[in-house]
Each structure stands twice: as structure tokens, then as C-alpha cells.
Write a structure and sequence with these properties.
The protein has 21 helices and 16 strands. By secondary structure, it is an alpha+beta fold. It comes from Candidatus Magnetominusculus xianensis.
Length: 588
């Protein structure tokens, strides 16, 4: 089978598209030069290797010779891994949200050869579907507009690009620095509480994400104020998630999100960052309540991560797919007959009682998604023993199935998060093995991701580190080093943390407007140099950096860091003022 230009890339996502009939380029000067030379728009497709809808669009369109022929005639097509280049993804996701009011992956951008976007969408089917335009309609329409309506495309691209640049400069607005931290905490608490689901736990409605940093904020708020409702919201959410189908009841670890409000039917991806942040949340809940339920869940998360996500060289892999054999969730589903064939009658009865198994489940067709309808604390010793034995048998049987694809690239920012979480858990549980695992992960980063002069690289795979580090890489590693110092009192951790903080300030700090840019000042020039303050699936780089600056300023007695932390807060104020509804201070 003929391979396209992606065959030599390291990204698992790009390699998944290496045998497409689409004449893909990686993000490169070669691609942009070709677009200029051939006078073609660029079709930029952004996703990641464990993205379900990316797989769907690949099968429907990018593997289809009809669609590929149209794309090759009309576009220079670029395929991008959002996890390798979050800087580019952030820019064009912002453009998509401005142009469509929403976003997601796969992210589809059509743009001029200089990077200015004039069309944005997410998943696009091959054929028109309802009000959704399909590739077979869209591509010829873009070709027609490119030839005969280019002035209109230019106006759209100029307007969107100007608006993005204007928004990127908001944090340079001069505002009075925030000093009323208590007021901000109260406003943030009210915002979080207003979205709380009193029936099912969690925040908002379906689809429902874990949002571990909301839980961490509620735990901190309870500790600072004694507000019982904050603790109640955190505990209800943590219990509901651990009992639900969003949790892998056999192999442990959390899936990406729940498609329903009650945590029953998950989207089956497993992301390293979710494990890290939820490990922090369950550890934090144990620290506050001393409830063994949270400690046990924390240890289960670490068991999954250390068993399935730790590479032989010492770094943690990025994610596991939702699909196996082309079917989402197939690895995790159980029919009633499969359970009966694997377990004894007594064990089957216990599983039916505890995990909500039926012969004709309402969700998943004939397939059961194991979720706990009865807590283990409600079981007698005999029942609990049966459940533990059944779990072991089912897990062993599941290991014979074809597993989901694992994205085995190692990312500095995600490894920093995981190392910080392990250090926090190790300290809370007085467990040196967890602290050693955290130390090993940081050692891998410092050994393998080192870049001159004193910086870090972002991605490692197949023996090669590449891509200049971005703010989240530095911020997460500094966080891990500070947590390791707290757990071990090893001054070498502080020395490294300060070294990376100095590098971050020198290369990323906005000396005019305050706050950190997403990219190094020497990085590739893109259409916008962004700052990120809002927390998404993970806390923003500026959130983590602020947390690090506040802690290091106190540990080291560094007045300059303290001063700069207030400048960062002021920069964020320009974005969030006057409501301060962002979560930049939730960790502080």
C-alpha cells in the first residue's frame, strides 16, 4: 500500500493516516510553501490518536478515494496531532469557537497559505447529513469560492485573525490588581455551586466530565471556610464517579467522560491527565475526611497507571483509545452470557447484585457496562469476597481480548502532572513507593527531555525527543518538583524547580502585560502568540505557574517571585474582570 508523507512521523495519530489516499503533509514549511506555489488553500485537520470521531472521519472520508481525490485537487492538506502541538491547536480551536460557537475534535480548518482561517468545523461526514454539509459538497464549494469569491474569504480571514489578536492582547489592559482573594473565592464557589448536579453529582448535564480541578477547589474552599456544602458537593461527585460506568470497575482508572448525567455510559477513552488530576482529587478527599474509600480509589488509580501506562524507559504514555476492533467500548462490555461462562453461579449472583447486570440492559444493547449499584461497604464479608474473586476472574478474561490502541508518546506536561499527583499521594499516604515513582518520572523528564540552553522538549517517542517545550511542560514539571520537595525535603528538587522557573520567566513572561505566553519567545511564529488563563481539561499553564510562584516565593523567601505572582493575577484580571469567573486561583 502506498504511503503518504506522514509515514516518517513519530506521532501515532499522524501514522494512523500514513496510508490514506489523501496527500497529507505534516505541519511544515514544505506544506506552506506548496500552498503558496500552487495557489491552494490549506485544509488543516487536527485530532489525536485516541479520538473516536477522528477515527470516524478517517474511515468515512480520509480513507475514501472519492473524497481524497477532491481534497488533493483543491487543497494542500495538513494533518496535526493536537497533543504534540497544543500551541497550534489552541489558536485554531479559538478560531473555530469564534466562527461556529463551538469546538471539538477532529478540528477542521480551511485557511490561507499564511495561516489565516476562513472556515472552521469539527467532524464532517462524507455526504450531507441533515443541516450538516458533507465533504463531497463542501470541497467543491470551497474550490469555487477560492477561484471566484476570494475577496469574501479574505474579509472573513482578516476579521477572524484581527479578533484573535485583539483577544490575545486583553491581558495587557491596565487594571487594578486583585487583592480581595476572599471575594474571588466566594464568587468562584458560587459559580461552581450553580452548576452542581444535586441528583447525580458532578457539574452540568450530559455529557458530564470529571472536572477534577472543581473538586480540588471545593476541598480547598471547605478547608478555608468550613462551608459544609462545598465538601458535600465534592464527596457526592467523587462517590458517584467511582461507582459509575465512567470508572473501569475491573482494571481501574477513569474513562474520559460520561455520555449521560448519571455517570453510567462513558466515552471509553482513558487519558493520563484525568488519572493524574483525579488521583489528586481522591487523595485530597482522603486528607480532608480520612475516609478509606478515597484512599482505596487513589491506590486503584495508581495501580492502573503503573501497570498499563508506564513505559519501559520510565515515562508515562498519553492515553488509551475508546475503540477496539473498530467498536467503541468493545473491550469493556460484558454480555450476561459471557459473565455466566466466566464465573461460578455464586459469583454471577454477586456481580448481578453489585454491578447492575441484567440480561437485557437498557444501555449498550445486549452489553452490560459494569457500574456499582451497591457500595462495597454495604456488603457482608462473604459477598465482598465473592466480588473480589469475580473481579479477578473477569479482569483475567478481559486480558485475552484485543485491547484498545495505546498512544505511546510521552509528553512532558502530562508526565509532570502524573509525577505531581504521585508525590502528593505518596506524602498523604506515607508511601515511599509512590514517591519513588514520582521521582523516577521526573528523572526521566530531566534526563530525556533536556534541551539547550537549560530548557525542555515536549514529546518523546521511539528514542527521540522533539518539539520545544511550552508553558504547560515547564509549569507541570515545576509543580512535580515542588511536590517532591515537600515529600522528601530534598533540596535538589528546589534547585531544579527554581532553574525551570527562571527559564520560564526569561523565555515566556510578558514583560509588558504580565503573565506567561503559551510559547517560548524563540518558538515558531504563528498568527497569534496566545496566553491561556482559562482551565480546560487540565488547569491552564498560567494557573499552574501562579500556584508554583506563590509556593516557591514562600519556600525560598523570594520577593521577586511574589511580586510577579501579583502581576500574573493582574494580567488574568484583565481577562476575567469584572466577574472573575475563571478558575485561575483554584489551586492557590
Amino acid at each position: 500500500m502506498t504511503k503518504n508523507r506522514l509515514k516518517d512521523e513519530k506521532s501515532p495519530y499522524l501514522l494512523q493516516h500514513a496510508d490514506n489516499p489523501v496527500n497529507w503533509y505534516a505541519w511544515s514549511d514544505e506544506a506552506f510553501n506548496a500552498a503558496t506555489a500552487e495557489d491552494k488553500p490549506i485544509f488543516l485537520s487536527i485530532g489525536y490518536s485516541t479520538c473516536h470521531w477522528c477515527h470516524v472521519m478517517k474511515r468515512e472520508s480520509f480513507e475514501d478515494t472519492e473524497v481524497a481525490a477532491l481534497m488533493n485537487d483543491t487543497f494542500i492538506s495538513i494533518k496535526l496531532d493536537r497533543e504534540e502541538r497544543p500551541d497550534i491547536d489552541n489558536i485554531y480551536m479559538t478560531a473555530c469557537q469564534m466562527m461556529t460557537g463551538g469546538g471539538g475534535w477532529p478540528l477542521t480548518i480551511i485557511m490561507f497559505p499564511d495561516g489565516r482561517p476562513f472556515f472552521a468545523a469539527t467532524y464532517i461526514p462524507k455526504q450531507n447529513r441533515g443541516s450538516m454539509a458533507g465533504m463531497m459538497f463542501l470541497v467543491p464549494r470551497v474550490k469555487q469560492a477560492w477561484r471566484h469569491e476570494r475577496d469574501e474569504l479574505i474579509r472573513t480571514a482578516d476579521y477572524v485573525t484581527a479578533l484573535m489578536r485583539e483577544n490575545a492582547l486583553k491581558s495587557t489592559t491596565s487594571v487594578q490588581p486583585i487583592t480581595k482573594i476572599t471575594e474571588i473565592m466566594q464568587i468562584t464557589y458560587r459559580a461552581v455551586a450553580s452548576s452542581f448536579d444535586n441528583i447525580n453529582g458532578g457539574f452540568g448535564s450530559a455529557p458530564k466530565f470529571p472536572v477534577a480541578h472543581n473538586i480540588l477547589f471545593l476541598l480547598r474552599y471547605y478547608q478555608n471556610t468550613g462551608e459544609a456544602a462545598a465538601l458535600k458537593m465534592a464527596e457526592k461527585t467523587l462517590h458517584a464517579m467511582r461507582m459509575g460506568g465512567i470508572y473501569d470497575q475491573l482494571g481501574y482508572g477513569f474513562h474520559r467522560y460520561s455520555t449521560d448525567a448519571s455517570w453510567h455510559v462513558p466515552h471509553f477513552e482513558k487519558m493520563l491527565y484525568d488519572q493524574a488530576l483525579l488521583l489528586m482529587a481522591y487523595t485530597g478527599a482522603y486528607t480532608v475526611t480520612a475516609d478509606e474509600f478515597y484512599k482505596r480509589t487513589a491506590y486503584e488509580i495508581t495501580a492502573y497507571v503503573l501497570r498499563d501506562m508506564l513505559g519501559a524507559e520510565g515515562g508515562f504514555y498519553s492515553a488509551e483509545d475508546a475503540e477496539s476492533e473498530g467498536v467503541e467500548g468493545k473491550f469493556y462490555f460484558w454480555t450476561y452470557e459471557q459473565l455466566r461462562a466466566t464465573l461460578s453461579p455464586e459469583e454471577t449472583a454477586a456481580v448481578i447484585e453489585v454491578f447492575g447486570v441484567t440480561e437485557n440492559p437498557q444501555s449498550g444493547g445486549i452489553n452490560n457496562i459494569l457500574h456499582m449499584v451497591k457500595a462495597e461497604s454495604q456488603l457482608n464479608l462473604e459477598r465482598r469476597t465473592l466480588i473480589n474473586t469475580a473481579r479477578e476472574k473477569l479482569f483475567k478474561a478481559r486480558q485475552t481480548r484485543i485491547p484498545p490502541h495505546k498512544d505511546d508518546k510521552i509528553l512532558t506536561d502530562l508526565n509532570g502532572l502524573m509525577a505531581a499527583a504521585l508525590a502528593i499521594a505518596g506524602r498523604a499516604f506515607n508511601d515511599n513507593s509512590l514517591i519513588s515513582a514520582a521521582s523516577a518520572a521526573v528523572g526521566f523528564i530531566e534526563r530525556t527531555m533536556a534541551a539547550e540552553p537549560g530548557g525542555l522538549m515536549h514529546r518523546y517517542r521511539d528514542g527521540q525527543s522533539a518539539i520545544s517545550g511550552m508553558i504547560n511542560d515547564y509549569a507541570s514539571v515545576i509543580w512535580a518538583l515542588v511536590e517532591l520537595y515537600e515529600a522528601t525535603s530534598d533540596n535538589a528538587c528546589l534547585v531544579s524547580a527554581k532553574k525551570y522557573m527562571d527559564y520560564l520567566i526569561e523565555h515566556f513572561w510578558d514583560f509588558e502585560g504580565g503573565g506567561f505566553f503559551f510559547t517560548d519567545k524563540a518558538s515558531e511564529t504563528l498568527i497569534v502568540r496566545q496566553k491561556e488563563f482559562y482551565d480546560g481539561a487540565v488547569p491552564s499553564g498560567n494557573s499552574i505557574a501562579l500556584y508554583n510562584m506563590l509556593r516557591l516565593s514562600k519556600i525560598l523567601g523570594d520577593q521577586q517571585l511574589d511580586k510577579m505572582s501579583h502581576e500574573l493575577i493582574a494580567a488574568a484580571s484583565a481577562v476575567f474582570h469584572p466577574l472573575y469567573q475563571g478558575h485561575i486561583l483554584i489551586m492557590a
